Amino acid sequence: MANRYRILLLLSSFLLLVAVRTQAQDPQPNITGYACSSAPSPCKTYAFYKAQAPDFLNLRNISDLFGAVQSSHIANASGLPTDTLSVADGQPLLVPITCGCMKNYSQANITYSIVKDDTFYGVSTRKFENLTTYQAVEVANPTLVPTALQIGNIVTIPVRCQCPSKAQLGSGTKMLITYVVENGDSLSSISKKFGAEQQNLKSQNGKNLTLDAYSTILIPLSKLPKLAQVHSPSPTPSPTAASPPAPPLSPTPTPTPSSTPTPTPTPSPTPSSTPPPATTAPPPSSQSPFSSPPPSKSESGLHRGVLIGASLGMARSLLYTAFFVFWMS
Question: 20-74 pLDDT, tens per residue?
């Protein structure tokens, strides 16, 4: 009997150790944004954004989305001619934002007006391309009920950002660009895309940086990067542009006396010749690449937190039970 108690005691101790180590190695993500720091604020910085069909292929529409920013400023920061308006689908852009400390979070508050079919989740993931989270939008708008939004409601969208610290400013870092991690990104590819040092990326975002899709990281830079240019595909020439070749001439048929034709009975269709009934193809997906991320990092983090909490509770219960039974014996 005593051996069983010792085994139970060792097992519960092991579970407790594993749960504590897991919790220490997997801290809960901050789903509402970056905490305010001692960095001087407010500051001018940029958010990385991609032009997307159908509504945001025009810089004026994008400038209206982000509020007080001119389309020419977006074009200039993105390496495009200042008078650019139309851009290709997927064109990378840098949108100027003003970052500051608000309600203990470092963010750029964007004023947005609710339109038909809007939800906090849809606005944050589709229109703002995961530069914020729906949880952060809820925190920034405590007087609005997320399930009862009305057309015309004025909403604050907290875009994640941060200002460089005094030490960073002293070492030449002039901006921290907010970037949403994409599927397939690596530290090397992000470094190459922005011309940033990998070590600076780790220092800014944590040594144990994990690049989870749809999460945000900060890119420390001393100057604006040169973004890749996406060109619209050339239109396909119309098949009616050239006249088709004339058909070959055939001899004129000689008319012959006509006789009353004998009507030929039309064969009735057999079951084998009946075409199968038409099936309706499913409608094509209208979702953008930003609209349907898997369960967000915050949600998966919360799920992991529930599992960790359950493990801790179970381990503690087993440990206390083992101690009590061992003491009673």
Answer: 333 333 333 368 788 888 887 799 999 999 999 999 999 999 999 999 799 999 9
| CA dihedral sign of residues 125, 128, 134, 135 | positive
Residue listed under structure tokens 């087993």: 318
SS3 54: coil
Global pTM value: 0.65
Calpha distance 241→260 (Å, rounded): 46
First to last CA, the chain: 9
How does DSSP assign 66-98, residue by residue?
A: TSS--HHHHHHHTTS-TT--B--TT-EEEEEEE
Summarised one tens digit per residue, pLDDT across range 260-282 is 444 555 554 444 444 444 433 34
Rg of the chain over Cα atoms, rounded to whole angstroms, equals 31
- Cβ–Cβ < 8 Å for 42, 163: yes
Nearest one of 52, 55, 58, 90 to 74, comparing CA atoms: 58
Cα dihedral 196, 198, 203, 204 sign? positive
3-state secondary structure of 49: strand
E strands, the chain, are 34-35, 43-50, 92-102, 105-113, 154-160, 175-180, 216-221
Structure tokens belonging to residue 111: 């004023």
